[in-house]
Each structure stands twice: as structure tokens, then as C-alpha cells.
Amino acid sequence: MSYLTITPNINQNIYNMKSPLFFILFLVFIIHTASAADDVVYDVRGNKVLNNVPYHIGPVVWAKGGGIKLTDKKNNNKICPFNVVQDPAEVNIGGKFSFTQVAKENYLKTSRILGIDSGSAKSGCDVSTFWKIDDAEAKAPKNLITTGGLFDTAASCFQIVQYPKPTSPKIHSYMLQHCPYFCGAGPHTCFNVSVVVDNGVRYLASSGTPFEFVFKKIK
Ligand SMILES: *[C@@H]1O[C@H](CO)[C@@H](O)[C@H](O)[C@H]1NC(C)=O
């Protein structure tokens, strides 16, 4: 008699254990599907950003300075390799940069390892045109972004991350992180790319408040 009452209880228990599990798996599936659709990177007009194609990048509100560009001067002296800076004039759209994912895909996605290419070399000191940070944990100038990096190496390893509190909910804005460890070596962390002001010049570097930026298609 007791045997008969235990049997349905066991079945009941199995059923109770299974259904939350299936529900969680179902939720994971839904969340995964939603995030897979969401991780594509969009330009300021809402179009998908192409992998390995030049774009302008700059602040959401262009009045807070212009686009990102290279400079071959610091305090009026020639520098080599070049620094990556924000143009002081809001009318200037800046340089052209290709974000090149290590995994070959048509469109850029957030949280993918990538290199940032400044295009063809303009001088002998700019032979390698990928952005790099020599020492993300150091102070300026060692933590400033320069050219001279090699694709898919620790110093040139970046990822795009959705900006946590966007200036405008209607505009897709992002921040960059430098993640040397993802490409092979270095501290087990990612560094937010920020703007460091030195002598009035706005340099991109690996410390401080993350720099919020947008992609602009080249006309
Ligand atoms: C990077 O930026 C995010 C968003 O502002 C912030 O939550 C996080 O603490 C920053 N990380 C570091 C290491 O500063």
C-alpha cells in the first residue's frame, strides 16, 4: 500500500525538477537569440557597420570636439609612431579607420577581438598602421594609443562594447576596450579607452572615463 503511494510521488518529483530546468533552458535560448541579434554594431544612422571597411569615428555630440585622427606632432615636435587624438575642431570629421575582426564576418559585432587599422602607411615611421598600446597599466605617454601595432597581437588587441549609458537612446554609441590578454598576453583584464588631455591635446589612452563614440560612414 505504501509502495503505491510512493510511486506517484517520485514521478511528481521528477516532473517538478524537470520543468524549471526546461524553463531555464528556454530562457537561455531566448536571451541568447536576442543578444545574437543585438550584438551587431550600428553606425550613427542605424546601418550595420561593415567589418574591415574604413569609417570615421567621433563623439556622439560632434560639438564636444571633432573626429578621431592621427597626429605626427606632439608639442610641435615630430613623433614616431603617430598618436591617436580627437580633432579639437568640431567641424573636422577626422581620419578613416578600419575595424578588422580576427574572426572573419561581414559586420562588426560587440565583444569580438579586433584590430584598428589607420590605412596605408604615409611615412616610414608608420609602416605598421594598426593601433597599439605599449603598456596599458602605465601612465602617459606609455598608455597612449599609437600606430605601429601588428594585427592580432596583444598590444593591438581591442574590442567594441556598447556604451553603458548612451547620450541618446536613439543613437548607437560605443566604447573601446583594450584587451591584450584576449590576443595572447598581458593582465587578465580589459582597459577602457578614454580621452587623456595633455597640453590641450585630447589623446586616446587606456585609463579614465570611457570615450563614447559613434561610427560615421565615409561619404
Ligand atoms: C570601464 O567602463 C565601465 C563603464 O563606464 C565601468 O563600469 C568600468 O568600471 C570601467 N572599468 C575600469 C577598469 O575602469
From TrEMBL:
Signal peptide feature range: 1-36
Cell cycle recorded as keyword: no
Alphabetized UniProt keyword annotations: Signal
GO molecular function: endopeptidase inhibitor activity
SMART domains per UniProt: STI
Pfam families, per the entry: Kunitz_legume
InterPro entries, A to Z: KTI1, Kunitz_inhibitor_STI-like_sf, Prot_inh_Kunz-lg
PANTHER family for this protein: KUNITZ TRYPSIN INHIBITOR 2, PROTEINASE INHIBITOR I3
UniProt similarity note: Belongs to the protease inhibitor I3 (leguminous Kunitz-type inhibitor) family.
Protein name per UniProt: Proteinase inhibitor I3
